[in-house]
Amino acid sequence: MDRNQMNRQLANMRKALFDQGYLDEQFVQLEELQDDANPNFVEEVVTLFYRDSARLIQTMDQTLERNPLDFAKLDNNMHQFTGSCSSIGAKKVKHECSQFREYCRQRNGEGCRRTFQQMKKEYAILKKKLEVYFQYVRQVALLK
């Protein structure tokens, strides 16, 4: 595959992430901060997001196992996580976070648990898609 084909493929991969609702405008803003001085900026930010958010997810997982549920703690942790998701433009994950927080406000434990599982699923899907995307970005960069 030549460089032009790889660039088109990369552009299609990126477009699909937006078209499928995985990413939003914040991701574009991150890309705009990337320059020659820091060519891997977006990947580094996303990597930090996944590393740091794992702790919050683990904390929420443990909190959801306790009875009675501490809705205030869950909502606070999810508020932090939502902010992290917003910072990288993780649109689907952020949507699930909002849903989770609404269930916290309603004190609906079953809704929280169900939405949390869906949020983790979206989180894992996005992580895999971004890993593939950034791997391809690195391959294309090697051709330049």
Report on this model:
It comes from Lithospermum erythrorhizon. This is Histidine-containing phosphotransfer protein. InterPro entries: AHP1-5/YPD1, HPT_dom_sf, Sig_transdc_His_kin_Hpt_dom. One of its GO terms (molecular function) is protein histidine kinase binding. The chain is an all-alpha fold. The chain is about 80% helix and about 0% strand. It contains 6 helices and no strands. It has helices at about 5-20, 25-35, 40-65, 70-90, 90-105, 110-140. Helix 3 runs antiparallel to helix 6 (about 110-140), helix 4 packs antiparallel against helix 5 and helix 5 packs antiparallel against helix 6 (about 110-140). It is elongated and about 60 Å long.
Q: How many helices in DSSP terms?
A: 6
What is the total tally of β strands?
A: 0
Helix percentage? over 70%
CATH architecture tag: Up-down Bundle
First-to-last CA distance: 14 Å
Subcellular location: Cytoplasm, Cytosol; Nucleus
Organism: Lithospermum erythrorhizon (Purple gromwell)
Keywords: Cytokinin signaling pathway, Phosphoprotein, Two-component regulatory system
Main location: cytoplasm
Which keywords apply here?
144 residues, mainly alpha, Four Helix Bundle (Hemerythrin (Met), subunit A), 6 helices, 82% helix, protein histidine kinase binding, Histidine-containing phosphotransfer protein, Sig_transdc_His_kin_Hpt_dom
